[in-house]
C-alpha cells in the first residue's frame, strides 16, 4: 500500500506498520499469527494544502477490494482486512461519507465491508518492510499481478489506476 500513495504530490511520508491491536511493539510474525488483533496498515503524512484527505481516501479505495471480509487477494486473515483509521471527528465523517458514496455508486455488487475505526497506537514495521516495492521490485510486481490485485483494479477502475 506504500507505492500507490508515494507517487502523489503532497504525500510526505508513507510508513508500513501495524495498528488496532493489543500487543505493544508487535512483530510481523506476531501480527500474521492473528494473536495480536493488529491490522497491517500504512501511516500517511500529507500536506492538506496540496492533497486533500478526500483524495487520500479515493486513492485507498482504488487499491483494495472493499467487499472482501476475509483479507485482501492472496493475503487472508484479520490482519489483512481493510480499514480506514481516522484521527479525529472530521476524518471520521469524511471517511464514512466516502464509503457511503462508494456504496451508492453501484461499482460493486457486494456490500462494502471496509471498517472505519478510530486510530490507535501505530507501530512501525521492521525495516525490511519499509519501501518493500523499491527493495524487491520483481517480487512486488509478480505479487501485484499474481495475486489478482492488478486485474481487480483494472476491472473496477480502469487502466489509468494500475500500480
From TrEMBL:
Please name the Gene3D superfamilies in this protein's record: Peptide methionine sulphoxide reductase MsrA (3.30.1060.10)
Per UniProt, the enzyme's principal EC class comes to oxidoreductase
The UniProt entry, under InterPro entries, shows: Met_Sox_Rdtase_MsrA_dom, Met_Sox_Rdtase_MsrA_sf
Gene Ontology terms, MF aspect: peptide-methionine (S)-S-oxide reductase activity
Question: Which SUPFAM superfamilies does the annotation name?
Answer: Peptide methionine sulfoxide reductase
Q: Which domain of life is it from?
A: Bacteria
Keywords from the UniProt entry: Oxidoreductase
Q: Which reaction does it catalyse?
A: L-methionyl-[protein] + [thioredoxin]-disulfide + H2O = L-methionyl-(S)-S-oxide-[protein] + [thioredoxin]-dithiol; [thioredoxin]-disulfide + L-methionine + H2O = L-methionine (S)-S-oxide + [thioredoxin]-dithiol
EC code(s) of this entry? 1.8.4.11
Peptide methionine sulphoxide reductase MsrA domain sequence ranges:
2-141
Q: What is a single Pfam family found in this protein's UniProt entry? A: PMSR
Give the family this protein belongs to, as stated in its UniProt record.
Belongs to the MsrA Met sulfoxide reductase family.
- Reported function: Has an important function as a repair enzyme for proteins that have been inactivated by oxidation. Catalyzes the reversible oxidation-reduction of methionine sulfoxide in proteins to methionine.
What the entry lists under NCBIfam families is as follows: msrA
**Name by which UniProt lists this protein:** Peptide methionine sulfoxide reductase MsrA
Task: Give the originating organism.
Answer: Pallidibacillus thermolactis
Provide the taxonomic classification: Bacteria, Bacillati, Bacillota, Bacilli, Bacillales
Gene coding for it:
msrA
Amino acid at each position: 500500500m506504500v507505492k500507490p500513495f508515494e507517487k502523489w504530490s503532497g504525500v510526505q511520508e508513507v510508513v508500513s506498520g501495524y495498528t488496532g491491536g493489543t500487543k505493544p511493539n508487535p512483530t510481523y510474525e506476531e501480527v500474521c499469527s492473528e494473536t495480536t488483533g493488529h491490522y497491517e496498515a500504512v501511516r500517511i503524512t500529507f500536506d492538506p494544502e496540496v492533497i486533500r484527505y478526500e483524495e487520500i481516501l479515493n486513492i485507498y479505495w482504488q487499491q483494495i477490494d472493499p467487499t472482501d471480509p476475509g483479507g485482501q487477494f492472496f493475503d487472508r486473515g484479520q490482519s489483512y482486512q481493510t480499514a480506514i483509521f481516522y484521527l479525529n471527528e472530521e476524518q471520521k465523517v469524511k471517511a464514512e461519507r466516502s464509503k457511503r458514496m462508494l456504496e451508492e455508486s453501484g461499482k460493486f455488487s457486494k456490500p462494502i465491508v471496509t471498517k472505519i475505526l478510530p486510530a490507535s497506537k501505530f507501530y512501525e514495521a521492521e525495516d525490511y518492510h519499509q519501501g518493500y516495492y523499491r527493495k524487491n521490485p520483481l517480487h512486488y510486481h509478480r505479487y501485484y499481478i499474481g495475486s489478482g490485485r492488478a486485474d481487480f483494479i483494472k476491472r473496477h477502475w480502469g487502466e489509468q489506476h494500475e500500480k
